[in-house]
Specification:
This protein is mainly α. It is built from two helices and no strands. Keywords: Membrane, Transmembrane, Transmembrane helix.
């Protein structure tokens, strides 16, 4: 659940960042995809850390 949540937040953050920088539709999609993957990796790392601690 953490992975999905952070992936979506990352995607939205990337889309918004490209929008504020004046990017076109493809720029927004690229930023959203990259930040989505970064968010998913951070979420996966947090999930592993939490599972190891419990």
């Amino acid at each position: 659940m953490i992975v999905i949540l952070l992936a979506l937040i990352g995607g939205l953050f990337g889309w918004r960042m490209a929008k504020t920088r004046g990017g076109n539709r493809l720029d927004k999609l690229q930023y959203a995809a990259v930040y989505l993957m970064v968010g998913a990796m951070v979420g996966l790392l947090l999930t592993v850390i939490i599972e190891r601690l419990i």
